[in-house]
């Protein structure tokens, strides 16, 4: 089958791409997703406790339709995964998107044909299709990272990865559960699992900063207020890196130590990300301020956790906020339960698995079930899994062997007419993702119109533009403390992955910049006449 555009992925970004390309641009579009339904990351991440860990309702949602904002009844400030899934299901129905999505169909290959100026794809079922444009909404957190401990495959009990959670309920009743990983997923899941399990043993490699989420019911009045002020809030999200509310301009060093502590207490009580982004300007850039905020959180952990030795193990020692900040719903309190124990893998590393236990250097931990909350080959992983073949038969895996070069995080030299949404070197996870996806798609819309208005067949980033973009993204990252910590932002969580800061740190500036580049005739791109208009 031939289409104008093929969209890979039916998560937030892919659904909007389908809607925009089909309903606003009038193109013929086919979307594919390996999942059995819409939702992308949310379709797979149904582990207990999964919820949006940012001010979600109605901000973690689409902004393109005011009617949608007005009609959807969010119930909590940080929506649970089931509510997010209900929402995307509703969106798929409301905009009649399902009829153009092929579910349970993974795209296994994509190849650029220079003669026809089209992408051809193949699916796991052997279907073939082609299109002028390939929109890769393949997900920043899709490829599950599984640890390779000796004997892990010999473990006889069930093994669940938080990023591939089964759709049928999992009961922990009476079970001894081992959990590896204490990132956002582990921190959300552990308190829920501990409520019913006989025992939970947490295997922690890095102690984490987690801030109290303070999720609350969203009142009808609040929701109405948001709807009434929607234009301002949306505008604020545009200007403030995806954040809907005013952010602080207070400078820490204008305040006394006592005033600063009072401010941190206030932000801690407010919950969510306030301590990090609203206590003072520059918490993630000023090392001295960062250390002070880190000390504040470390002291809080010591106050919450009863056992001093467990508290010590749970106390992080890296720069505050330089791994993805975690919001918790009773995480540290969970270690005060008698059915939860903590193994610090830095003191006592895992040596092997048996059929019934995890063995560490200093002991054996019998378990009936294993939960891997070990994260993802983030940002670049899903594109490399697709591994498209561009000009000259070059595969993306070859091009990205040492560095994830992109232009604007959306385009790749050698891969004409291919657009990524939330690709490496775009703001991605550092911005509110549904809005970021909309703004990427608005840019792609403008780019495709530009091609058509100028009778061009292809658009392609230049290598020079990629090199300059790489420099720009790195310079921005280096103004922050992020690159100084090993995290999935830097690729350090995957053995052998090239080290590179994977995100553009300034979301609003980023979107201004890509719009300015578009207005300047899509600077940094080259265009080729449409093959159908070239005589002979
Ligand atoms: O994954 P992670 P995640 N042996 O990579 C540990 C988003 N998210 O799924 O820190 C032992 O953060 C690893 O240890 P270390 C959010 O953007 C959003 O939790 O590398 N341990 C770490 O503790 C988030 O950042 C929501 O030393 C191993 C953990 O596993 C992103 O998804 C909810 C190990 C992995 O943490 C990923 O979060 C959840 C090994 N071999 C997630 N390998 C929302 O609410 C890894 N670890 C929107």
Structure description:
- The chain is of the alpha/beta class.
- It folds into two domains: 2-143 and 377-533, FAD/NAD(P)-binding domain; 152-372, no CATH class.
- Helices cover 33% and strands 18% of the residues.
- It has helices spanning 12-24, 41-44, 66-71, 81-94, 184-194, 220-228, 230-239, 257-270, 274-278, 287-304, 308-314, 331-334, 381-386, 396-399, 433-453, 463-478, 507-519, and strands spanning 2-8, 29-32, 101-102, 107-113, 118-123, 128-136, 143-144, 159-161, 176-180, 199-204, 210-212, 326-328, 340-344, 350-353, 357-360, 363-366, 369-372, 376-377, 418-420, 456-461, 525-529.
- The strands form six sheets. Strands 1, 2, 3, 4, 5, 6 and 19 form a seven-stranded mixed beta sheet that branches.
- A hairpin with a 4-residue loop joins strand 4 and strand 5.
- Helix 15 (433-453) runs parallel beside helix 17.
- The longest helix has 21 residues, at 433-453.
- The radius of gyration is 24 Å and the shape is globular.
- The mean pLDDT is 96.
- The structure holds 3-acetylpyridine adenine dinucleotide.
- 3-acetylpyridine adenine dinucleotide binds next to helix 5.
């Amino acid at each position: 089958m031939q289409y104008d555009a093929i969209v890979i992925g039916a998560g937030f970004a892919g659904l909007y791409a389908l809607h925009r390309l089909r309903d606003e641009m009038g193109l013929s579009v086919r979307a594919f997703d390996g999942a059995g339904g819409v939702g992308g990351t949310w379709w797979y991440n149904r582990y207990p406790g999964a919820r949006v860990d940012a001010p979600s309702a109605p901000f973690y949602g689409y902004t393109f339709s005011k009617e949608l904002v007005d009609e959807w009844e969010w119930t909590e400030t940080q929506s649970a995964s089931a509510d997010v899934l209900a929402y995307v299901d509703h969106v798929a129905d409301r905009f009649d998107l399902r009829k153009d999505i092929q579910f349970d169909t993974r795209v296994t290959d994509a190849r650029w044909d220079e003669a026809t100026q089209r992408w051809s794809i193949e699916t796991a079922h052997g279907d073939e299709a082609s299109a002028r444009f390939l929109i890769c909404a393949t997900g920043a957190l899709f490829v599950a990272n599984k640890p390779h401990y000796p004997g892990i495959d010999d473990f006889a009990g069930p093994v669940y990865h938080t990023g591939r959670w089964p759709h049928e309920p999992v009961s922990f009743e009476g079970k001894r559960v081992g959990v590896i990983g204490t990132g956002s997923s582990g921190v959300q899941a552990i308190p829920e699992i501990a409520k019913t399990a006989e025992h939970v043993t947490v295997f922690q490699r890095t102690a984490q900063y987690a801030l109290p989420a303070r999720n609350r019911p969203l009142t009808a009045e609040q929701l109405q207020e948001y709807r009434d002020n929607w234009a301002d809030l949306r505008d604020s999200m545009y200007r403030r890196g995806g954040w809907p509310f005013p952010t602080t301009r207070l400078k820490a060093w204008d305040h006394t130590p006592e005033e600063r502590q009072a401010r941190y207490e206030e932000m801690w009580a407010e919950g969510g990300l306030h301590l990090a982004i609203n206590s003072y300007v520059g918490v993630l850039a000023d090392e001295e301020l960062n250390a002070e905020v880190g000390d504040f959180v470390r002291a809080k952990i010591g106050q919450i956790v009863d056992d001093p030795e467990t508290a010590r193990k749970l106390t992080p020692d890296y720069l505050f906020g330089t791994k993805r900040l975690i919001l918790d719903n009773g995480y540290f309190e969970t270690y005060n339960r008698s059915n939860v124990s903590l193994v610090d893998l830095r003191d006592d590393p895992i040596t092997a698995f048996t059929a019934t236990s995890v063995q560490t250097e200093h002991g054996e931990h019998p378990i009936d079930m294993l939960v891997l909350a070990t994260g993802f080959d983030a940002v670049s992983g899903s594109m490399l899994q697709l591994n498209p073949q561009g000009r000259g038969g070059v595969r993306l895996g070859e091009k990205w062997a040492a560095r994830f070069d992109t232009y604007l995080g959306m385009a790749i030299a050698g891969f004409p007419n291919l657009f990524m949404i939330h690709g490496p070197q775009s703001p991605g996870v550092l911005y509110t993702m549904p809005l970021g996806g909309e703004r990427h798609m608005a840019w792609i819309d403008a780019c495709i119109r530009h091609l058509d208005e100028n009778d061009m067949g292809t658009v392609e980033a230049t290598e020079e533009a990629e090199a300059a973009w790489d420099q720009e993204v790195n310079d921005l990252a280096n103004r922050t403390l992020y690159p100084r910590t090993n995290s999935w932002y830097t690729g350090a969580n995957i053995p052998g992955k090239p080290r590179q800061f994977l995100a553009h740190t300034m979301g609003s500036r980023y979107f201004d910049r890509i719009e300015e580049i578009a207005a300047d005739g899509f600077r940094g791109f080259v265009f080729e006449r449409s093959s159908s208009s070239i005589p002979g």
